[in-house]
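debug: dumping io for the single-chain case to check the tokenizer round-trip. Nothing else runs in this session.
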Amino acid sequence: MIFKRILLITICLIFSVVLVVILYFVSAKAKQNKNNFIRALPTHRLVPDNIIDLGEGRWYLAGIGNDSIYIGNLYTPQKLLRVDSSVKDTVGCHFSLPEGAKLTRGYFNLVQHGSIYTLDGNQPALFLGKLSSKILKPATKPPFFTQAAHSLGKSFILRVVQNGQNRLVRYRPDSDGFRSSANLLHKQIDGVFSTDGNLAVAPKSGNVFYVYYYRNQFICADSNLNLLYQGKTIDTNSTAKLKIASIKSQNQTTLAIPPVEVNKRVAINEHFLFIQSGLIADNEVPESLKNVSIIDVYSVNDSKYQFSFYLPDFNKKKLTDFKVYGQSLYALYDHYLYKYKLNF
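debug: decoded output
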């Protein structure tokens, strides 16, 4: 009896492992399939400029200004690295949080227009102060949020979960409550996974962009979250390819298999929306894309596709973050910061 039970458990375990492996390779193959679209790939759109080694750490881009790039490190919450715009020198920038303040693993720092913000959507909490004073104070408590982007003035755009759905809201740290509007995010399979994506705010105009991870769609709204238009990326994946499973013991849902990731990361400047794509075009060869990241460029005015370019891997490191400021693109490859000049 015991032997039969052990044998049954072993067979089930082997079957589960084999099934997961098969599903993984099916998902990986889907990303390499032809997707019925063509990329425009003009040459010389990207000019390498300079690179700097930041040292070991979990780095991310916290903000960019006229003369500085601010780099955050998830291991050192009260320290930023200030890199000059030529990407040649670095200076540590320390600041203090209120006494007794504690951060969860979900925290991150933002630098914008001479101010620094520490945000933690798991508490939720927001601390703010001037870079010159390096002392942060607590702001009015925001709602629980899963993404945040600085908007015009003292406003933030937050992604929150309400009634089981992702939603965008406008929040001001110096006022009570937050401004909600008609839900701009349209669910397909569920309200969370199928509406997952990247949030970005355009400089100067303050227009809000949200690019879905798993389908060929994005939205543009004004700073008050009034819809301006809905755009489409150049691929044909209009429906998110997701398989969702329930974990009844924990009352949670999760993705049962790795999803087909259509749009990975987003950056924006005054004129263009830059989207890192996860899909191959009909005029591309899978082998040639193993060591590059694909960036598709769209006009922020009307959502029209412009062209694409490749960001090559550096020192066997894949792209982990990128931002665009004016005519400069700053790319993070793990602990390397690479500056490129845009020739358009």
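debug: round-trip ok. Helices lie at 2-32.
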